[in-house]
Amino acid sequence: KQWYQRRVAITAGKKPLFPSVSTKNIKFLLNFGQQPTKQPLLDGYKMIAFTPANQIHPCIAGPATLAEAEFIMMVGLPAAGKSTWCESHAAAHPDKRYNILGTNLIMEKMKITGLARKRNYHGRWEELIKKATGILNTLFKVVEQKLERFPRNIILDQTNVYESARRRKLRNFSTFGRKVAVVIVNSGEELIKRNAKREKEEGKFVPESAVMEMKANFRTPVLSEGLTEIQFIEMDEGAAKKQIDDFQKRKKYRLRLCVDTTA
Asked: How many CB atoms lie within 10 A of CB 72?
């Protein structure tokens, strides 16, 4: 056995400290006071086991059961503002301890020679999204296996504009007590503006053909898909449905133009 002891003095002010240990392929023992120390403690310090109860702050716990858990499914076109909403919502509700799952987060973790994949999406979108979706599907399986023992509040950050895809994904979270669809719809002009901004700042580029396909198949969520609640962000429900209808009409109009031109 090898013993390691490192003394670190930390001033946290009024904020509690939550010690954590990250390890890989190593067996270790943490001494919280259950056995004598190899070296004397620094003056003014005590082992955690001997800390008075009124000085111990309880850790923020997630849901105790799946019946208390929340599953939030984002619905919206690329660059609609889904990821921004997810981050803001999670930050505003730290007590919920949301776990955000999505292809964007996976692609941000992809590295090229150790560097983040920034401004390196152009021409590779189809390949990247395919790989990221495969990884996300694997994560779904892992989450499904562990949810009973370790319930979590989850936000799914994907486009989810296809009704069939939403129904399929919701089946994995059917035992959650609260299942919410958060729908973000923007005008065509606003989407163009946000896509251009994202491409300029982050290098993310979604092919127009993929966006047009999503617009043509965009269906407004309904409770019968397995949801308990539907929220509309930015546009209210009436305006959102009208805008989605407009997306689909424009797609049909383009198709007619193509047929007429070919003829």
From this structure: 25
Rounded CA separation 45/51 (Å): 10
C-alpha dihedral sign at 130, 170, 211, 259:
positive
The pair of three-digit structure tokens given for residue 242, joined into one six-digit string: 């009208």
Contact 100, 109 (CB under 8 A): no
pLDDT tens for residues 6-18?
655 566 667 777 7
Place of tokens 């152009």: 122
C-alpha closest to that of 127 among 190, 245, 210, 185? 210
Task: Say if residues 181 and 73 touch (Cβ distance below 8 Å).
Answer: yes
Q: What is the pLDDT of residues 68-93, one digit of tens each?
A: 999 999 999 999 999 999 999 999 99
pLDDT of 116 above 60 = no
* DSSP per-residue string spanning the chain: ------------TTSPP------SS------SSSS--SSPPPTT---GGGS-GGGPPPPPP--SSGGG-EEEEEE--TTSSHHHHHHHHHHH-GGG-EEEE-HHHHHHH-EETTEE--S--TTTHHHHHHHHHHHHHHHHHHHHHHTTTS--EEEE-S----HHHHHHHHHTTTT-SEEEEEEE---HHHHHHHHHHHHHHH-----HHHHHHHHHH-----GGGT-SEEEEESS-HHHHHHHHHHHHHHHHHHHHHHHHHH-
